[in-house]
Amino acid sequence: MSVLEIKKYPDDVLKKKALPVEKIDKSLQKLIDDMIETMYDAPGIGLAAPQVGVSLRLIVVDVNLDDEDSEPVVLINPEITDTDGLIESEEGCLSVPECQITVKRAEKVTVKGLDRDGREVSIEADGLFARALQHEIDHLNGVLILDRISQLKRDLYRRKMVKMRSKAEA
Ligand code: GNR
Ligand code: NI
Predict the structure, then answer these.
(1) What is the distance, to the nearest Å, from the Cα of residue 148 to the centroid of all Cα atoms in its chain?
(2) Active site residue: 71, 98, 136, 169, which one?
(3) According to a count of CB atoms within 10 Å of the terminal CB, is the N or C end of the chain lower?
(4) Closest ligand 1 atom to the C-alpha of 94?
(5) Is 136 tagged catalytic?
(6) What is the DSSP letter of 16?
(7) Domain ranges for the chain
(8) Distance 96 CA to ligand 2 centre (A)
(9) 143 C-alpha to center of ligand 2: Å?
(10) Which CATH topology does 12-169 take?
(11) pLDDT in tens, 82-111
(12) What digits encode the pLDDT tens for the residues 122-140?
């Protein structure tokens, strides 16, 4: 297994709509394992394939990072089939460094997809798990937390990043 490079805004791969996974083969299993290792290494509570430069509909989530026995959830071609409630909460993103913003999302979601063995699964989630699933599925549609805030805040973030970059290069 290997830790992969996490692509950062404004990388083009983060803006693309990812394609459905057609074949669950050895190379996909390796990608899944590498994504899990990359998520734990970061550390993050979720990771979508486009974040490691692969434009496929595949996500991994583990909101119990502190729990040794917790198993990562792997979802291939995930789809939200039901939502309930709306709630605002702070979010960060490994691909959008130095950015913590409040995002309004469904409080509960039902998500269907395939597990890593290709079996159909349906997951009901609330709390941080529901939030992480929606955040990762956004990545598959080329949507970042920056797209969910006002133009003004987005411009502020862009300017902050330009400044940080010029400092780092100085
Ligand atoms: O590690 C992460 N934390 C987080 C916190 C609140 C809402 C969503 C997230 S996902 C993020 C990892 C990430 O960027 N996944 O795409
Ligand atoms: Ni993210």
Answers:
(1) 14
(2) 136
(3) C
(4) 14
(5) yes
(6) S
(7) 12-169
(8) 7
(9) 9
(10) Peptide Deformylase (3.90.45)
(11) 999 999 999 999 999 989 999 999 999 999
(12) 999 999 999 999 999 999 9
